[in-house]
Every structure is written in C-alpha cells, then in structure tokens.
Design brief:
The chain has 85 residues and is an alpha+beta fold. It is built from 2 helices and 3 strands; from the N terminus they run E-E-E-H-H. The protein has a 3-stranded antiparallel beta sheet, with no helix packed on it.
C-alpha cells in the first residue's frame, strides 16, 4: 500500500501542506497520482484551525521544523489521517 504503520511512506508524493491564498490558513493538498508535487491539486483541504504547518506540528507533539512526511506519519499514528488503498 501507500502507507505502513511505521510512517508516511509514499504518501508524501500524494499529500503536501501549503497555505490557502484567500484565507492564509494551512491546507493539505491532495494529488491523486502523486506526480505533480503539489502543483496540480485534485483536492485541497483547508485546516482552518491552523495558520501554518509549524502550528499543526506543535499540536501533534512534533517540533516546529517537522517535515510534511513527519506530520503525515504522526497524523496516521494518531488516527487523524486515514487512508485506504
């Protein structure tokens, strides 16, 4: 599959964090085939409680310099992100 119990594995190709230009809020950008590196989003999820990736990382108990892969991995571990292939 695209993920394992231990981490984000290949999900980093499909999911990237960004910022919504209209609201300034954190977004999770979904690329269905993992080839556009976030440039051609199929879906954008706005995480309206967070102004940036560092705030989300801190809430998850990670350092403010956590990578997208670190955050995705932690979200899978805590059940905040569920995927099914």
């Amino acid at each position: 599959g695209e993920h394992s119990a231990s981490g984000s594995s290949n999900l980093s190709s499909y999911l990237q964090f960004g910022t919504d230009s209209a609201t300034g809020k954190l977004t999770l950008v979904v690329d269905h085939d993992g080839t556009a590196n976030g440039a051609a989003a199929d879906q954008t999820i706005v995480l309206s409680s967070y102004a940036n990736k560092a705030a989300l990382a801190t809430d998850l108990g990670l350092g403010s310099t956590a990578t997208d892969a670190d955050i995705i991995s932690k979200m899978i571990q805590t059940g905040n992100l569920k995927t099914d292939i």
